[in-house]
Amino acid sequence: MRIALIRRLQRLFLLFSIVLVAGVVILAVRSFGFLLPRQVEHVTIVVPTPEQDTVPPLTVALLSGHAGFDSGAICGDMNAPTVKEVDVVARIVELVRVQLESKGLEVLILEEYDARLTNLDAALMLSLHADSCIFVSGYKAAYPFNSAIPLTERKMLACIDEHYAAHTGLSFHPSVTEEMTRYHAFRKVLPRTPTVILEMGFLGGDARLLMQEPERVVAGITESIDCFLEEAEQKE
Ligand SMILES: [Zn+2]
After folding, report:
1. Which pLDDT tens digit goes with each residue over 82-129?
2. How far is the CA of 27 from the centre of ligand 1 (A)?
């Protein structure tokens, strides 16, 4: 009876000793800076790797006016070949894309009624068009009449007034229509995506600039976008 009790106590003591030794070993391992497997896993997940610190490139969406839908304005007479707005715009959009990509930006080219406009999340959505065939000169720019971020979009307009005007030599033409401020694409993108529509000039009065000197138009647009993205960065 007494021997059995002593053996039971011995076993309990042995078990207690094992737990104690195991505890001391774990503490010793920790204090020497070694990590247990579970902690290694934990640390691997929590500590950000350099890849996680890298900011993804900003996406700029360029809507190529009338693309995939119609011709837009069509100009021409017996003395001049027919010019379609959709073609003039597409050529400029492509040149702007090359410039923006060379600056490390992600560029998304959209058609007029592109399905990707729905809930589009981008640093900027700029729709490019050219105005009618009349012999008038100037550019026009507008943002949504019911914008959730009018201050941000006004910055883009200010950048256009500074850089687009300087490169093209065009002045702002004060004939912004409701068609522009209530532009269909404005309603589709996420409210936090800044959206602006730019009528780059008139196919009539600005034909030479739009068709013979597109590099000036491209520089004006690229620098306006640069200016806007820099301003947006400063705000943060
Ligand atoms: Zn148009």
Report:
1. 999 999 999 999 999 999 999 999 999 999 999 999 999 999 999 999
2. 73
- Dist. CA 129 → ligand 1 center (Å): 4
Listed by start position, the domains of the chain span 2-49, 55-235
For residues 102 and 114, the answer to whether their CB atoms sit within 8 Å is: no
| Helices assigned H by DSSP within the chain | 2-31, 37-46, 50-53, 85-102, 150-159, 165-168, 178-181, 207, 214-235
* Cβ atoms of 72 and 130 closer than 8 Å: yes
Could you report the per-residue pLDDT of 180-220, keeping only the tens digit for each?
Answer: 999 999 999 999 999 999 999 999 999 999 999 999 999 99
Distance 34 CA to ligand 1 centre (A): 67
Return d(Cα 202, Cα 210) in angstroms, integer: 8
56 alpha carbon to ligand 1 midpoint, in Å? 32
The rounded Å distance from CA 180 to ligand 1 centre is 10
**226 Cα–ligand 1 center, Å:** 24
Contact indicator for 91, 163 with CB cutoff of 8 Å? no
* pTM for this predicted structure: 0.76
Q: What is the CATH number of domain 55-235?
A: 3.40.630.40
Please provide residue 56's backbone torsions phi and psi, each rounded to the nearest 5 degrees: -65, 150
Closest-CA residue to 214 (of 172, 167, 171): 167
